[in-house]
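FIELD: query
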Amino acid sequence: MRAGRLLSMLILLQMRGRLSAEALAAEFEVSVRTIYRDIDQLSAAGVPVYAERGRNGGFALHEGYRTRLTGFTPAEAEALLLAGVGDAASALGVGAEAAAAQLKLLASLPQDAGASAQQVAQRFHIDPIGWYARAESIDLLPTLAGAVWRNRRIRIRYESWKEVVNRDLDPLGLVLKGGLWYLVAAARGKARTYRVANIQKLDVLEAQARAPTRFDLARYWKTWAADFEARLLSGRARVKLSPLGFRLLRDTSPAAAEAARQSQRASKPEGWIEADIPVEEVAYAARQMLRLGAEATVLGPPELRAAVAGEAARVAGLYAKPKGRRRAH
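FIELD: result
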């Protein structure tokens, strides 16, 4: 642990120049006293580090000194591709390795290139979680990630929409979609998708996993996601939207809003449009349309129009003014 911290400290001083003991202590979450001991260790090892006193003082390396100790450990190499994905690396259990890999990568670049890469990292941040949503807390995710990376078969107990099932799977990859984690795994040689949060139990087996021939995770996910959306939004509805209604639809269902934009035709009152949009099954679609309030009207099909009217009537009934009780004489 200490050797890794000494190496990281050396790389930080090489990249950033002068750093105070307090800044180093905050960086590595140790005491200032520990930092002074670490600096003594670096000096004893022949590293030309010196201290400058004063308000803007701190520790620095002699000009021209550059370490060549930038080799990656296996764990850091595994984490490198995840180093820029916000909290994803931490969720997968490789947050510390990802941070160390970033430092080593920057230190191994030429001086100007390293500065540019660091500027990019400081100015761009990826947050895959939607507004008003929270990332799923999945305790087994690091273990699952290890099985995926090490190509080990797994046995899971999985809660599907219909029932709880047990499956032996060949894990092929993990996908983070809208803040939700999905496992892509082969069952009897065919790739399938599983919501990680629905995995109730996970056992990593000794057997090696086998991937389907020429399997490509990115290509599979693109095809599967498009097919999933098509199956989910298999119905069609004709609606009338106000300008505000269209904006609300865009916020709640971008796919439906895009379909409305492409199929729109002018309607009355002025500014309103009629359009055809994809919807889910009737009961769910009725509740989705009610989210648009009086800024949208369902014109068809009749069963969806009736479902919206029925749901609206039930909501109105909840807010109906109760009849006053007669006073007893």
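FIELD: remark
Residues 235-318 form one domain.
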